[in-house]
Amino acid sequence: MYEILKDLREYHDLTQQEVADALKISRSTYAGYESGKDVIPLKRLNDFANFYHTTIDYLVGNSPTMEEVLIYHTFDRKQVAQNLKSFRETRNITQEEIAEKIKVSQSCIHKYETNKILITTYYTLEFSKQYHYSLDELLGRKNN
How would you class 41 by CB atoms within 10 Å of its CB: exposed for 0-12, middle for 13-18, buried for 19 or more? Predict the structure, then answer.
Protein backbone atom coordinates (compact mmCIF):
# COMPACT_ATOMS: atom_id res chain seq x y z
CA MET A 1 0.00 0.00 0.00
CA TYR A 2 2.74 2.44 0.95
CA GLU A 3 4.66 1.94 -2.28
CA ILE A 4 1.50 2.65 -4.23
CA LEU A 5 1.10 6.01 -2.49
CA LYS A 6 4.65 6.94 -3.38
CA ASP A 7 4.26 5.71 -6.95
CA LEU A 8 1.06 7.73 -7.40
CA ARG A 9 2.63 10.84 -5.93
CA GLU A 10 5.67 10.55 -8.18
CA TYR A 11 3.54 9.71 -11.24
CA HIS A 12 1.64 12.97 -10.70
CA ASP A 13 4.96 14.77 -10.17
CA LEU A 14 3.98 15.94 -6.69
CA THR A 15 6.05 16.47 -3.59
CA GLN A 16 5.11 15.07 -0.21
CA GLN A 17 4.38 18.63 0.89
CA GLU A 18 1.98 19.23 -2.01
CA VAL A 19 0.00 16.07 -1.23
CA ALA A 20 0.02 16.87 2.48
CA ASP A 21 -1.25 20.40 1.80
CA ALA A 22 -4.02 19.09 -0.45
CA LEU A 23 -5.13 16.64 2.25
CA LYS A 24 -4.69 19.19 5.06
CA ILE A 25 -2.17 17.10 6.99
CA SER A 26 1.44 17.75 7.93
CA ARG A 27 4.23 16.62 5.65
CA SER A 28 5.63 14.46 8.46
CA THR A 29 2.25 12.71 8.85
CA TYR A 30 2.16 12.09 5.12
CA ALA A 31 5.76 10.86 5.16
CA GLY A 32 4.83 8.40 7.93
CA TYR A 33 1.98 7.05 5.77
CA GLU A 34 4.13 6.77 2.66
CA SER A 35 6.98 5.04 4.48
CA GLY A 36 4.70 2.58 6.28
CA LYS A 37 5.71 3.83 9.72
CA ASP A 38 2.14 4.98 10.43
CA VAL A 39 -1.12 3.19 9.71
CA ILE A 40 -3.39 5.20 7.44
CA PRO A 41 -6.83 5.70 9.05
CA LEU A 42 -9.81 4.66 6.92
CA LYS A 43 -10.98 8.24 6.51
CA ARG A 44 -7.54 9.17 5.16
CA LEU A 45 -7.58 6.20 2.75
CA ASN A 46 -10.85 7.60 1.44
CA ASP A 47 -9.22 11.03 1.12
CA PHE A 48 -6.30 9.53 -0.84
CA ALA A 49 -8.69 7.67 -3.14
CA ASN A 50 -10.62 10.90 -3.77
CA PHE A 51 -7.42 12.87 -4.34
CA TYR A 52 -6.03 10.41 -6.88
CA HIS A 53 -9.46 9.59 -8.38
CA THR A 54 -9.05 5.88 -7.79
CA THR A 55 -10.35 3.07 -5.60
CA ILE A 56 -9.30 2.17 -2.09
CA ASP A 57 -8.89 -1.40 -3.31
CA TYR A 58 -6.18 -0.16 -5.69
CA LEU A 59 -4.47 1.87 -2.96
CA VAL A 60 -4.19 -1.14 -0.64
CA GLY A 61 -3.13 -3.54 -3.37
CA ASN A 62 -6.40 -5.49 -3.63
CA SER A 63 -6.80 -4.48 -7.26
CA PRO A 64 -3.91 -4.72 -9.73
CA THR A 65 -5.19 -1.93 -11.99
CA MET A 66 -6.01 1.64 -11.25
CA GLU A 67 -9.63 2.43 -12.01
CA GLU A 68 -10.44 6.08 -12.54
CA VAL A 69 -13.14 7.23 -10.13
CA LEU A 70 -14.35 10.76 -10.69
CA ILE A 71 -17.09 10.89 -8.08
CA TYR A 72 -15.97 12.38 -4.78
CA HIS A 73 -16.98 10.14 -1.89
CA THR A 74 -17.66 11.45 1.61
CA PHE A 75 -16.58 9.04 4.33
CA ASP A 76 -19.52 7.88 6.47
CA ARG A 77 -18.84 5.82 9.61
CA LYS A 78 -22.51 4.81 9.85
CA GLN A 79 -22.39 3.40 6.34
CA VAL A 80 -19.31 1.34 7.20
CA ALA A 81 -21.11 -0.10 10.23
CA GLN A 82 -24.25 -0.87 8.20
CA ASN A 83 -22.26 -2.49 5.40
CA LEU A 84 -20.34 -4.69 7.81
CA LYS A 85 -23.55 -5.85 9.48
CA SER A 86 -25.32 -6.35 6.15
CA PHE A 87 -22.41 -8.42 4.82
CA ARG A 88 -22.54 -10.68 7.87
CA GLU A 89 -26.33 -11.06 7.93
CA THR A 90 -26.79 -11.78 4.21
CA ARG A 91 -24.22 -14.56 4.46
CA ASN A 92 -25.56 -15.95 7.74
CA ILE A 93 -22.23 -15.48 9.48
CA THR A 94 -22.12 -14.85 13.20
CA GLN A 95 -20.22 -12.06 14.87
CA GLU A 96 -18.16 -14.75 16.57
CA GLU A 97 -17.13 -16.27 13.23
CA ILE A 98 -15.97 -12.93 11.86
CA ALA A 99 -14.21 -12.13 15.12
CA GLU A 100 -12.33 -15.41 14.99
CA LYS A 101 -11.29 -14.93 11.35
CA ILE A 102 -9.97 -11.40 11.79
CA LYS A 103 -8.67 -12.03 15.32
CA VAL A 104 -10.72 -9.60 17.41
CA SER A 105 -13.33 -10.15 20.09
CA GLN A 106 -17.00 -10.64 19.30
CA SER A 107 -17.61 -7.53 21.37
CA CYS A 108 -15.46 -5.53 18.92
CA ILE A 109 -17.50 -6.79 15.97
CA HIS A 110 -20.66 -5.73 17.80
CA LYS A 111 -19.17 -2.26 18.40
CA TYR A 112 -18.13 -1.98 14.75
CA GLU A 113 -21.62 -2.94 13.55
CA THR A 114 -23.38 -0.53 15.91
CA ASN A 115 -21.01 2.34 15.09
CA LYS A 116 -19.80 2.58 18.67
CA ILE A 117 -16.25 2.41 17.32
CA LEU A 118 -14.89 2.53 13.79
CA ILE A 119 -13.22 -0.62 12.56
CA THR A 120 -9.49 0.01 12.21
CA THR A 121 -7.60 -0.07 8.95
CA TYR A 122 -5.73 -3.20 10.06
CA TYR A 123 -8.94 -5.15 10.73
CA THR A 124 -10.58 -3.83 7.57
CA LEU A 125 -7.67 -5.14 5.55
CA GLU A 126 -7.87 -8.47 7.39
CA PHE A 127 -11.64 -8.62 6.79
CA SER A 128 -11.11 -7.91 3.09
CA LYS A 129 -8.44 -10.59 2.84
CA GLN A 130 -10.35 -13.28 4.75
CA TYR A 131 -13.65 -12.74 2.92
CA HIS A 132 -12.34 -11.54 -0.48
CA TYR A 133 -14.50 -8.46 -0.05
CA SER A 134 -13.92 -5.07 -1.61
CA LEU A 135 -12.89 -2.29 0.75
CA ASP A 136 -14.65 0.14 -1.56
CA GLU A 137 -17.87 -1.78 -1.01
CA LEU A 138 -17.35 -2.00 2.73
CA LEU A 139 -16.68 1.74 2.95
CA GLY A 140 -19.65 2.55 0.75
CA ARG A 141 -17.65 3.79 -2.23
CA LYS A 142 -19.56 1.45 -4.54
CA ASN A 143 -22.75 -0.57 -4.35
CA ASN A 144 -22.81 -3.85 -2.43
Answer: middle
